[in-house]
Amino acid sequence: MKKVIGGFLGVLVGVLAIVAVAGAAPAEQVQPATIIRYSEPVEITGTLTVSNPGYFPQGVHIGSTTADAGGVTYFNGTIVNASEDADGNDTIPVTFGDDVRIDGIIYRSEEGGDNPLKIADSLRPTADAVYSFGTSDYQFLDAYLSGTVTAAAYAYGTAQTRYWSIGGSELIPAESEAIFTKGSGCLSSTDDSFTAPVNLPQGAVVTKLAFNYSDTDDSDEFNVGLIRSKNGADETMATAATSGSTSGWRTAEDASVVGATVDNSEYSYRTQVGDGDMNNGATHQLCAIEVSYTVTSPLP
After folding, report:
1. Is there a domain that residue 184 lies in?
2. Residue 285 placed within a domain
3. Would 238 disulfide with which of 146, 174, 195, 209, CB 3.0-4.6 Å?
4. What span, in angstroms and rounded, lies between the C-alpha atoms of 167 and 277?
């Protein structure tokens, strides 16, 4: 009987000791005396807060693996690889072993700041001739390259204006017995016409014909034309003409161009001073002819 009473009292003391320990800790805290080891899955339906670093030697899965389930994960801070290499150096990078999708923007230090992204490898698309670098609305400003640029085609974002020109003294007579004088790059004649070939790049679009001249005689005018020819037939693309007389140098022009797109496979092109119009010698001087045109790709 004494043994039974003694055993009962021992159990009672043990229970009271456990109650005293549990009552000393707040209800929301668990304070184990040693490391707790769980061999079964643990499900937490609320929020788990860890005040010290957590180490998961076997890896950690975040989010659902169920198809189309996914999940949202928040990282407030910097992700770094805290491990070291065999020499004790902190040189091991954070590694993503699978495809990475980023729905926001990527920048370093600050958006648009003085710390550009550093890329230590070649860039290659996953498919050939499918993806673009930039768009028509969002373009990079400048490109600095030290090697060769290889592409199937090159194009300007907007058409670029270029010029072809020839001095008056470089024109050649259209007749065998022409009478003319050349001086200071200009041309004067008594009663003849002159011509010169015009070489423009394939696909260029002619926008204007102009010439620089001096005319001190009211009685006569002369004109300059841009002409294309095919199978012996001429077609005038543009004609600019002098008007009245005045001292000093003037410019005549014509921006109403017919058949403006250059097609060297079908036509030859030339400029020509009108027949018999430049007929007052030194009172008429033609010094330069200029053809303006646009291109949409770099010239060969």
Report:
1. yes
2. yes
3. 209
4. 18
The CATH code of the domain that includes 248 is 2.60.120.260
3-state class (DSSP) for residue 170:
helix
- At 80 the pLDDT is 81
Q: What is the DSSP string of 229-282?
A: EETTEEEEEEEEE--S-EEEEEEEEE---SS-B--TTT-EEEEEEPTTTB-SEE
Q: What is the pTM of this model?
A: 0.65
CB 211: neighbour CB atoms within 10 A?
A: 26
Domain with 271, as residue range(s), is 160-295
148 in a structural domain: no
What do you get for the CA distance between the two ends of the chain, in Å? Answer: 116
Counting the structural domains of the chain, the total is 1
263 Cα distance to chain centroid = 30
What residue type is 33 in one-letter code? A
pLDDT of 14 strictly over 80: no
Structure tokens at 75: 């990282």
Residue 271 burial (CB count, 10 A): 23
Share of the chain above pLDDT 90, in %: 31
Task: Classify residue 216: in a domain, yes or no.
Answer: yes
C-beta of residue 194 within 8 angstroms of C-beta of residue 171: yes
Report yes or no: 213 and 285 within 8 Å, Cβ to Cβ: yes
